[in-house]
Design brief:
With 292 residues, this protein is of the alpha+beta class. The protein has 3 domains: 22-57; 60-183, CBS-domain; 194-275, Uridine Diphospho-n-acetylenolpyruvylglucosamine Reductase, domain 3 (2-Layer Sandwich). The chain has 12 helices and 12 strands. The strands form 3 sheets. The protein has a 5-stranded antiparallel beta sheet with strand order 8-9-12-11-10. Strands 1-7-6-5 form a 4-stranded mixed beta sheet. It has a 3-stranded mixed beta sheet with strand order 2-3-4. Strand 10 and strand 11 form a beta hairpin.
């Protein structure tokens, strides 16, 4: 049945938008934005098309989960301790480390099946059901990785840096979210914006509301304009945060761990006094040695 009675189809209307061939990516985006403003496509379609374009240019390092946030299974620990950690974190896949090296990836469903059958009684049994790890470089393009995920039926890859050290982790869901937006499931914890790491170091998402940040860290930071920690840091710096940049928030040091060219995604928050003390000790050491 034809829809000609209802006027031109959206495809024909969109083709008119591109009647003049775009000369580059920026011009394509500009024409798409004009098409959205004219009602040719809706805002969701525009965002997805933009996401596709970004995936074709972005690289793994731009969206990977940093090493600091990865939950690893360390085979140096007792089996009961490993199982307890898995219950607490409730992930579906875990990189497995033995003697400082990644030796495999453990799927929670594989472990559950083996436990029910009584096949896992030692750490060696645990290692035996691990799957081969899939390593990718930080520089790999996301569109290439997505194709490899589909062809290899893998859902997770471990990211290595130029020195073959573990730098991060990326999943097929991470890549798809760049196109369709955030994908939430029943395991997503909306309260896990702040995660404790080693010592008094915390990993804090940029989307963390300032009220939540202030309540947790007992601070009163507020620039009068920002609602999230990412917005606050951007306003303090005066530009989009860059990985490695730092700002002070009362007694805490906020360091950018992960960011794109449009926004910050993750921060490391550590006690400012501890950093100052460490710096002071480093500065003092030559004086002490000279006095001896």
């Amino acid at each position: 049945m034809s829809d000609s009675s209802n006027g031109p189809s959206w495809i024909s209307r969109l083709s008119k938008v591109f009647s003049d061939e775009p000369e580059g990516r920026e011009e394509i985006l500009e024409k798409l934005q004009n098409a959205q403003e004219q009602g040719v496509i809706d805002s969701d379609a525009l965002l997805m098309i933009q996401g596709v374009l970004e995936v074709s240019e972005a690289r793994v390092r731009d969206i990977m989960l940093p090493r600091l946030q990865i939950v690893l299974i360390d085979l140096s620990k007792e089996l009961d301790e490993i199982l307890e950690e898995m219950l607490e974190t409730s992930h579906s896949r875990y990189p497995v480390m033995d003697e400082g090296e990644i030796v495999g990836v453990l799927l929670a469903k594989d472990l559950f099946r083996s436990l029910v059958k009584g096949e896992v009684k030692t750490k060696e049994d645990l290692r035996a059901i691990c799957r081969e790890p899939n390593f990718v470089p930080e520089s790999k393009r996301l569109n290439v990785l997505l194709r490899e995920f589909k062809e290899g039926r893998n859902h997770l890859a471990l990211v290595i840096d130029e020195y073959d050290e573990l730098a991060g982790l990326i999943t097929i869901e991470d890549v798809l979210e760049q196109i369709v937006g955030n994908i939430e499931d029943e395991h997503d914890d909306h309260d896990e914006n702040i995660k404790k790491r080693a010592g008094e170091i915390y990993a804090v998402k940029a989307i963390t509301p300032l009220d939540q940040f202030n309540d947790f860290f007992k601070t009163q930071v507020d620039d009068g304009n920002s609602e999230s920690l990412g917005g606050y840091v951007a306003n303090i710096l005066g530009h989009v945060p860059i990985v490695g940049e730092e700002v002070e928030a009362e007694n805490w040091l906020i360091k950018v761990l992960q960011a794109t060219d449009r926004r910050a995604d993750l921060f490391q928050v550590s006690p400012l006094q501890a950093d100052m003390l460490e710096s002071a000790n480093d500065d003092q050491k030559p004086l002490d040695e000279a006095a001896v």
